[in-house]
Write a structure and sequence with these properties.
The protein has 647 residues and is of the alpha+beta class. The protein is 47% helix and 17% strand. It contains 26 helices and 20 strands. Strands 11-12-13-14-15-16 form a 6-stranded antiparallel β-sheet. A 5-stranded mixed β-sheet has the order 3-2-1-4-5, with helices on both faces. A 3-stranded antiparallel β-sheet has the order 10-18-17. Strand 17 and strand 18 form a beta hairpin. Helix 7 crosses helix 8, helix 20 packs across helix 23 and helix 21 crosses helix 23.
Length: 647
């Protein structure tokens, strides 16, 4: 791929008075920022370190290489190094000649932490454990004390021996990253994936404009509400801390109300019960208050406030290949991947009232200020002057991809006709026509919950977690609902079993197998699942062994929820989910790539949705038809022809 290109491996140690973990690297470099150490190596040459904190300067050869597009700049989490160096050189460095070893490792489902990845790969060079202590000492402000003479920063002269260790630590990180890179070279990343990564970096560099006034006022309103509601709760209960779960449970128990949990769903159910039976007006008021208090902490506004840079925009909100296995994007900072929806028709009016600080009026008009603040979160993202947002999304993308991969023809036909998939599913399940708000319309809800929960082999627990009980279904009818859905979708059910069998057969005989459009390969002690795009999902060190049910199954090594490297089961539903979500991700990435080629500025995206920032009055309406589905896309006149030529 890039064997002939020179590689400059880089690791930086830096200082800033801005907290990196809570504000992100783009805001971090706008504080009292300094590059302390610059460790580097060209190809396999010896690692060197430039002590910039002590006045050493970057060699001209290194400076030239950083701006030379033919030289690959490699680093673990390269966005950090590139952004820091952009600040140092006072120019935005293009990401096009940068390669992130962390992203490369993520493509193999390896950990995103350098230390853990090195341990899993058993590299000759390992990350030094002393680094955390040294970073805390030299890279972040210190608390002024009498002992340290009241200083707020530790410099090299304050701990010469530790500074020498810090330099060694920085150099060691380059060696570790390079060792990992050498191992990764046996599994080259597709050129298209590097293109998508570079596109992702441009999106992060571009950022999205934030309505700072709305953010500030929302935070102020939230703080005032929290104080008022806490005071009200204290007055109602007399508890020392009415926010304490244990104290509140005790208070309810004393009133003859026993609860297992005070989670959102449980409190909502308790409110309905108390209201229905008029059991205890004070307990009812307190539970309503608790529900409001739980929503009043609008953390996304606070995150936005921390992430806003000097240009008024929030940057670095997306992590390429952040989702283990599928390599879907993950959210960072504000977490745009899970913004609350808004439903009120007078959204603009509510927004202006909050910006003007008319909090009493918001409460008197809408009656639930925390909910209004939550609904306004999306509106803190605004286009720059002279521009507007255009939002485009895929409709029911996972359901469509699953039907396509499994060959469930009736579903594909329904999508082609533009049918409501929940009605179509209910109709197929129960053998009667189902029309939303029409004939047998009451069955649509059952079709909906089955669609949301059953596509990847989910059982009763999945239905409950998707809100089946909240929709009025009883636990007794859930098994029958699952059976009805599976009977209506035989090809999808067969797809689960075929995926599971193909995976096990491939691990057993090391031969290639296929399930429709999905391929299975075995090499390098890894099971590879080949997607329609040609991209591969890695299942490391697969093994056939009895599972917890005593049935022979495939297991593999991966990163668990506790961020520890574990062995887990592979089963058909999980394999189908991975293939479906990864394929949907590939479709989104390709669509974004085409949009960028068409000259459109992407400022945000979520799984199936893209947010574009385009100049007002310079757009053309283009209709794109795939099958019988027509999408309305708005492009600048000059971009329309470029965009359409890619279809």
């Amino acid at each position: 791929m890039d064997e002939k290109r020179r590689v400059l491996s880089i690791d930086l140690e830096t200082f800033s008075d801005i907290d990196l973990s809570s504000c992100g690297v783009y805001r971090y470099v706008e504080g009292d920022f300094h590059i302390l150490l610059f460790a580097y190596a060209f190809d396999d040459e010896d690692v060197r370190v430039v002590d910039m904190a002590c006045g050493e300067e970057l060699p001209q050869e290194v400076r030239d290489a950083i701006f030379d597009e033919t030289v690959i700049k490699a680093a673990w989490n390269a966005q950090f190094e590139r952004t820091c160096l952009s600040r140092y050189f006072c120019t935005q460095l293009s990401p096009d000649s940068w390669q992130c070893s962390m992203v490369w490792a993520a493509s193999l489902s390896l950990p995103l932490k350098l230390k853990t990845a090195a341990e899993v790969l058993k590299t000759g060079e390992q990350k030094d454990d002393a680094g955390e202590r040294l970073i805390k000492y030299f890279s972040v402000p210190c608390k002024p004390t009498k002992t340290n003479g009241g200083r707020t920063r530790n410099l090299p002269e304050h701990a010469p021996e530790d500074w020498a260790l810090f330099k060694s630590y920085c150099m060691q990180d380059v060696r570790t990253e390079r060792d990992i890179r050498h191992k990764l070279e046996a599994f080259p990343l597709q050129k298209s994936e590097w293109n998508f990564y570079h596109m992702d970096q441009r999106i992060n560099d571009r950022g999205v404009l934030i309505d700072k006034k709305l953010v500030e006022q929302a935070i102020t309103c939230d703080m005032m509400l929290s104080e008022e509601m806490t005071a009200k709760a204290y007055e109602l209960t007399g508890l020392e801390n009415p926010n304490s779960v244990s104290q509140l449970k005790g208070w309810l128990t004393e009133r003859g109300i026993d609860v297992d949990s005070l989670g959102k769903k449980n409190v909502t159910a308790l409110i309905k019960d108390l209201d229905k039976h008029s059991i205890d007006s004070e307990a009812l008021e307190m539970m309503r208050l608790r529900l409001q208090m739980a929503k009043s902490s609008v953390k996304k506004y606070q995150a936005a406030d921390r992430y806003i840079c000097l240009d008024g925009r929030a940057h670095g909100l997306f992590q390429f290949s952040g989702a283990n296995r599928t390599q879907r994007w993950a959210g960072r900072g504000i977490q745009l991947q899970n913004l609350p929806q808004n439903h009120i028709s007078t959204l603009d009016e509510a927004r202006e009232l909050v910006k003007l600080g008319c909090f009493d009026m918001v409460e008197s008009i809408y009656g639930n200020t925390p909910d209004i603040l939550s609904q306004l979160i999306r509106t803190m993202l605004i286009p720059k002057e002279g521009c507007e947002f255009i939002v485009a999304d895929f409709s029911a993308i996972e359901a469509r991809v699953l039907a396509w991969l499994a060959g469930e023809q009736w579903r594909m036909d329904a999508f082609k006709r533009g049918d409501d998939i929940y009605c179509a599913s209910a109709s197929q399940m129960f053998g009667v026509p189902v029309v939303k708000h029409g004939i047998n319309g009451e069955l649509r809800q059952k079709g909906k919950v089955a669609e949301l929960a059953c596509g990847y082999g989910g059982a009763a627990g999945a239905l409950i977690s998707m809100g089946a009980l909240d929709m009025g279904l009883s636990e007794e009818e859930l098994p029958g609902l699952i059976d009805d859905w599976r009977t209506a979708n035989p090809h999808i059910v067969q797809f689960w079993w075929d995926v599971e069998k193909a995976a096990m057969d491939t691990v057993k005989d090391h031969k290639e197998h296929n399930v429709g459009r999905i391929g299975f390969q075995f090499y390098a002690n890894t099971l590879w699942v080949v997607l329609p795009s040609g991209r591969k999902l890695a299942y490391i060190k697969p093994r056939l062994q009895p599972n917890r049910f005593g049935k022979m199954a495939m297991t593999y090594e991966c990163l668990g929820q506790s961020s520890k490297w574990i062995r887990t089961d592979f089963y058909g539903g999980r394999g189908a989910e991975n293939c479906c979500q990864a394929t949907a991700r590939d479709l989104l990435a390709e669509a974004m790539w085409r949009m960028e080629r068409a000259g459109l500025d992407i400022v945000g995206h979520v799984h199936d949705e893209v947010i574009l920032e385009v100049p007002k009055g310079t757009i053309t309406v283009v209709r794109v038809t795939v099958g019988t589905t027509t999408s309305r896309i708005e492009l600048s006149p000059g971009a329309a022809q470029i965009f359409m030529s890619s279809y």
